[in-house]
Design goal:
This protein is an alpha+beta fold and about 350 residues long. The chain folds into three domains: about 130 residues, no CATH class; about 70 residues, Roll (SH3 type barrels); about 80 residues, Alpha-Beta Plaits, CATH 3.30.70.100. The chain is about 50% helix and about 15% strand. The protein has ten helices and ten strands. The strands form three sheets. Strands 6-5-4-3-7 form a five-stranded antiparallel sheet. A hairpin with a 4-residue loop joins strand 9 and strand 10. It starts with 5 loop residues before the first helix and ends in a 35-residue tail after the last helix.
Length: about 350
């Protein structure tokens, strides 16, 4: 039609770049990184299509400051950030692949596998940061100037972070706790799901996941129910009436324990006479289980149900608190005409 097509060519180029960038960003799983990549790539493509990329780069390079012998410009910062993001992304992928290879090694314990995986990730991230700094033209020897300030910052501001990090390394080395162990620490009871650089994930029987700092495992007492073996002994008190056959009650308690699948037969359960209380004769049933990660309350509940049924079947009574009240009357005089009757507020035992 003889009209100018320059605007149409620019529009087609921008749409083509947008479609390509949109498809490429879908390959990134993380939506945040995907949007950041799409925005950056679209901005560069648009400036290049419009012929404004070179002037924009010159403008960013002109906005600079000198720190000693080092010249830092806006363009240098942008290049450094982009390079750092790419290197960190590559380091993350590489560390994930190496961690999977380490986890498949049969000769390593779970704690050693976690330690090696964390150390690989730390080393790769450190290399990525140093490479990004060096890529923008900053001499790495200049970082020595900031080492004193960083040391002071680690000593004060990051004291807890460093303490948890060092505690995590110690835990992985001495293998006192490891993923899969059933523990009780800081008032929490559950199974260790994972060990991180700063905290350990402990999942309770209620399904609640507690993130406990690694320092807690070093400075407080930890009950590890599966450190050397997973067998633990549980105890439950059972009260029996004084008029009941105590020997029969003991045998019934042992029979009830033998019918619970989770209670071990070796060591075998025991029933002990513990005390003569005011209202009952107290028996204590002691038994062992080999799977504490499956809970304690459920196995104790099943045992008590069995004992209840057997006591009811054989006439063994479970008492409730009771008191005997003895009334004593005495002759009280001086209260009007009816001297033989006790006053209204007479006490009794």
């Amino acid at each position: 039609m003889g009209w100018p097509v320059q605007l149409l060519n620019i529009t087609v180029s921008l749409l083509t770049a947008w479609v390509v960038i949109r498809v490429a960003s879908q390959l990134i799983r993380d939506p945040v990184w995907g949007k950041l990549f799409a925005l950056t790539a679209w901005l560069v493509a648009a400036l290049n299509i419009l012929g404004l990329l070179s002037p924009a780069l010159m403008l960013l390079d002109a906005a600079s400051i000198n720190v000693g012998d080092v010249r830092i410009s806006a363009l240098t910062i942008i290049k450094g950030v982009v390079t750092l993001i790419l290197l960190l992304w590559l380091a993350s992928i590489t560390s994930r692949l190496l961690e999977q290879r380490v986890q498949n090694l049969p000769n390593l314990t779970p704690s050693v596998q976690v330690l090696i995986g964390k150390m690989i990730k730390i080393i790769l991230v450190t290399i990525a940061i140093l490479a990004a700094v060096n890529a923008v033209g900053i001499d790495l020897t200049a970082l020595a100037v900031f080492s004193g300030a960083v040391g002071v910052g680690l000593g004060f501001g990051l004291q807890k972070v460093v303490s948890n990090f060092v505690s995590g390394i110690i835990l992985l080395l001495d293998r006192s706790v490891k993923p899969g162990d059933t523990i009780a620490v800081a008032g929490y009871y559950g199974r260790i799901d994972s060990l991180g650089a700063r905290y350990a994930s402990v999942i309770t029987r209620d399904g609640v996941e507690h993130l406990i700092p690694n320092e807690e495992f070093i400075t407080t007492r930890v009950e590890n129910w599966s450190y050397s073996n997973q067998n633990i002994r549980l105890r439950k008190m059972v009260g029996v009436h004084y008029k009941s056959d105590i020997h029969k009650a003991r045998d019934l308690c042992l029979e009830g324990a033998a019918e619970v699948d989770r209670i071990l037969t070796d060591p075998k359960p025991a029933c002990l006479l513990r005390d003569f209380n005011d209202s009952s004769v107290d028996l204590e049933v002691r038994f062992w289980i080999g799977d504490p990660m499956n809970g304690r309350a459920n196995v104790t509940s099943e045992l008590l149900f069995n004992i209840w049924d057997k006591f009811a079947e054989h006439g063994i009574e479970i008492p409730y608190p009771q008191r005997d009240l003895h009334l004593r009357s005495s002759d009280v005089t001086g209260f009007g005409d009816d001297a033989d009757s006790p006053p209204d507020d007479a006490s009794s035992n």
